[in-house]
Amino acid sequence: MANRRSVPQIVESISPASCTVDHRLEVLRGLPFFHDLSHERLEEINRQFRSYDVEAGATIYMSGDRTERLYVVAHGRVKLLRHSASGEDTVLDILATGEMFGTLAALGDVTYPDTAEAQTFSCVLGIGAHDFQAILERSPDVALRVLGIVAKRLQEAHTTISQISTTPAEARVAAALVKLAGKLGVPDERGTLIQTRISRQDIAAMTGTTTETASRVMSQLRRDGVIESGRQWIVVIDLPRLTEIAEMA
User: Fold this and answer.
1) Backbone dihedral region for residue 108 (phi beyond 0: left; psi -120 to 50: alpha; all else: beta)
2) pLDDT higher for 35 or 150?
3) Where are the beta strands (DSSP E) in the chain?
4) Residues 177 and 155 in one domain
5) pLDDT digits (tens, 9 = 90+) for 145-187
6) Phi and psi of 228, rounded to 5°?
7) How does pLDDT run across 104-118, given as a tens digit for each residue?
8) Residue 137 neighbours by CB under 8 Å, 6+ apart
9) Which residues neighbour 182 within 8 Å (Cβ) at sequence distance 6 or greater?
């Protein structure tokens, strides 16, 4: 227990003023749709995105809602959730700056497959179907990238299904932790600190396994000295070893 209390608690402070035009342009430039557009064209596209300040815990959209906007995280963290039959929410992913979420009919979806909720105070950029369609019509190269991304999504979905049936649970859990460490981790004296509340049920949902299996794997990783964890944090102590487990066939 002493080790758990020793892990620092980082308080993330995000100001609404941080979603400046320059920052918006930087975030949009990082999207695969727009990465090589001219500065002038990117400025035009930026004007078609709306900026939303979202309080921690606020819902951005609900699973089953009709698709209205494609979003990108400009600042903060956004959780993607799945609602279970018992009424509980499980975390599918936690998104950081520069990551897209939501969808549009133009990308092949009529309703949102998940619920998006701000984990911290966040600034998100959103674009509606009409404005996104206008971008596609004016920029054929962007339209081609959109088709490529849709194809990639389908391939990733197929790969995920294949991995669930062929990859050991230990590797899937380790891969999820490596991914979270890369997106959300900050340097800590003991390793890489992921400070966010992630339950064993969440880990199970992320990796296509049962809660019992996720708990068993996490416990083994702790016993092996690869990770340490508390109620709202995980420290990856041995990232090379965790990566090795994640790549286990």
Assistant:
1) left
2) 35
3) 50-54, 59-61, 69-75, 78-83, 89-95, 100-102, 115-118, 122-128, 186-188, 191-194, 227-229, 234-236
4) no
5) 776 676 666 566 555 555 666 789 999 999 999 999 998 999 9
6) -135, 155
7) 776 667 888 889 999
8) 143
9) none
> Which among 94, 116, 98 has a CA at the least distance from the CA of 194?
94
Burial status of residue 38 (CB atoms within 10 A of its CB: 0-12, 13-18, 19 or more): exposed
Q: Is residue 3 part of a domain?
A: no
Task: Give the domain extent around 198.
Answer: 167-246
Q: What CATH number does the domain containing 178 carry?
A: 1.10.10.10
β-strands 227-229, 234-236 pairing: antiparallel
| Residue 215 in this model has a pLDDT that exceeds 50 | yes
Can you give the pLDDT at residue 1?
A: 39
DSSP labels, 145-168: HHHHHHHHHHHHHHHHHHHHHHS-
